[in-house]
Amino acid sequence: xxxxxxxxxxxxxxxRQIYQALTERILSGTLxxxxxxxxxxxxxxxxxxxxxxVNEAYEMLISEGFVLSRQGSPTRVAEGLRLRxxxxxxxxxxxPETAPTAWLADFRTGQPDLRQFPxxxxxxxxxxALRGMTPELLGYTGPQGxxxxxEEIAAWLRRSKGMAVREEDLFITAGAxxxxxxxxxxxxxxxxxxxxxxxxxxxxxxIFLNKGCTIGRISADEQGxxxxxxDGRQACAVYVTPSHQFPLGGILPAGRRAALIRFARESDSYxxxxxxxxxxxxxxxxxxxxxxxxxxRVIYIGTFSKVLFPGLRIGYAIVPPELQPRWRSLRTxxxxxxxxxxxxxxAEFLRTRKFDRHLGRMRKLYGERxxxxxxxxxxxFGDRWRSWGDAAGLHLAVQFPGRRFDDSxxxxxxxRGIRLASVEQHALRKGDHRDKLLFGYGHLEPEExxxxxxxxxxxxxxxxxxx
Length: 467
Prior knowledge:
Helices cover about 40% and strands about 15% of the residues. It is α/β, with parallel strands linked by helices and about 475 residues long.
């Protein structure tokens, strides 16, 4: 009746199905304002259901103002409820979804091998953490983060990087992206730039742009930020990835680190240190962070996304004392805090040193895959390439002297099933890095790496790469 079809096997109650069918007709204009609905007895008979079920559906419509009911009169549709059809929305809704590309070679950057994550260990720790959580920890625990997690992060930074960090200076965040959002609000000053490396991570750059910050570029080379370009700049902050510059991979040397610290002091600005990929290092110990040189001038940002799994959404920041009250206020009035349960599990993962062991295994695995990639490049391209920044991280920047990789080349790769990015895509000033491609390898098995490089070699030999 009235085109209403009830599904008696559905989990949605019959009264709710009637309510939904009638509201759809009212909002679309099929039922006009002032039009009478059938009596509850009539509709119940037509649908072959209980009259009480129809009564309950009508009561829902009346309580929400879709229909009006007066004693002795039929129930009528309220006026002014028709919604005009949005042509653009309809077109978008009717367009079939594009199927994801089946990549034959997927060299995306920043992707850890999630198949290696120790699920069973995490599950067991999760059960222990939940049993050990007091009722107080299930409430609001404050913007700084779970004390147990801050204690364990401070201990891990001490044993892995030699950092002397006080727990009260640590703030838990929803990853590095969230930390940069808060840091941008902290350091922004009208009339001053936030200086960034060029090239830099365009996703992180977009955070500052979305905040309305004025951006200034400082060139990066094989050793990271070129600090000689800082002279005379009026900045409120410098965003830098000194341990593994993204995307070129350079490690900022001591002389440039000292120059950067001096600039921050003399210009009364801050350094936002994104410790990108520093844990995945293949030569020697991890590089000492800038934070160790001047804790009063450096906002240090770390994350567990790459070393555990991105969906965890837990990172941390070490914040100079004078900025901490403002940080607490900003965090309190945005999302208050991270969920306590995941924090408790991660704290236990760190406390039991299972994190250290997992990181050691992954560093060894990624190192082996890095060697496979380098060998595959040599086999395919001989001496017609050179790597940049291959001492750390999950990707490799590769220069092909004499080649030019533009958007048309990357699009042609995509159509061939090769997923690649170029350094030029991350450059503010275009033209300086047109001969460099980025190869992510952490998530790939050795044969996937070799097969992907062979496929790229065949494609490039066709001459498509030259513009």
